[in-house]
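Let us work through a complete example step by step.
Step 1: write down the sequence.
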Amino acid sequence: MKTLLYLFFLTSFTTIAQTQRDTLVSQIVRAFPTDKTSYEKLKTDIKKLEDLEEKPNPEILYSSLDFIYQQNDLDYFKETLTLLTRNYGFNLTYATGKEPYYNDIIHGNLATWFKEMYIKNHSEWLSENLDKQIDIYRLNRLRYDDQLVHNDILKIQQIEGLNEEHLKQLRQKDADYFLRNLNTLLTISNKINKLPTGNSFALIQNYYGIVETHAMQEPEIIDKAWKSLYPFYKASYLDKDISFISFMNIDFCMHRHNGKQIFNLINPESFPKSSQNNINDKEIPLFDAELTKKLRTELGWE
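Step 2: predict the structure and record it as tokens.
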């Protein structure tokens, strides 16, 4: 979660949380604890969020594992990783090997504990969720596939001698691939009528959020992208599986596209001055005031 593009804005500038839960999520994703005091604050906030949502938040817990381990809170680390494995499908296959705890759970002091815990709990989870494995694989691949093709296209665009028609064709190929990845996410979401998260489907360790963002950054497909994602965002938000950040991302992408916003979640202070259309603006206009009112009412914000 902490690696997504739109979190650059969230961690650096002003955004407009809509509920106590949204405010708490914002605090948690902004947290990068470096000492005991800031770590205990993060841990307390995670517990408060669990109370507000009336269930664990597997994405928050997974993104906090590094901090938990680095603060040597090993009992809580074991408790959290066991929960993620048994209830949400944590899968060693999707680890990068660069996690600060990886060597310890594979070769170090935690290896004996982890092997016994993982084999038992992952096997039990797998026996109950075998039918999800292909879709889990596809979702974990999305971020990699997105970056692989997009980075190659960016490199090709640097080749000398390309004319405007060549560049136009490359941009279209990029947009086509973003749409293909988005359609993979939409197809899986349609099966469960919400976004695939830890609580609705399974923990996706290689988070796919960049696929949503890239699709909504393409002028040709932004409308299709956000309108296709919104029903799944709404269902997941009302079930307390995602926060207002997903809707805020739509507003950031819409502002980048036409200088306006849909959900009224951002203001000029949400951006560095170099990214503002007019540094004297006091607010960011709405794309459609009636639509904003309708959608905010559906989400319980009006």
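Step 3: interpret the result. Residues 1-12 have pLDDT under 50 and may be disordered.
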